[in-house]
Amino acid sequence: MHAAVGDQLHIHSRSVGMVDQKGKIIEVRGSDGEPPYLVRFEDGHTGLIYPGPDCNIEHEEAIR
Question: What phi and psi values does residue 62 have, to the nearest 5 degrees?
Fold first, then answer.
């Protein structure tokens, strides 16, 4: 998985009733765009994320 600052991380819910989470990548801490990513989520909190199989990256140029 590769990402850049400005890309959006989408975490899909794993259970019925759970809500998907989306956040903007504000820092890439791995080398060459690899995880971990510092993400600011839509509710305003930030977290250091090591994405799993329930995540995908929406690249900034594709969002526009």
Answer: -80, -25
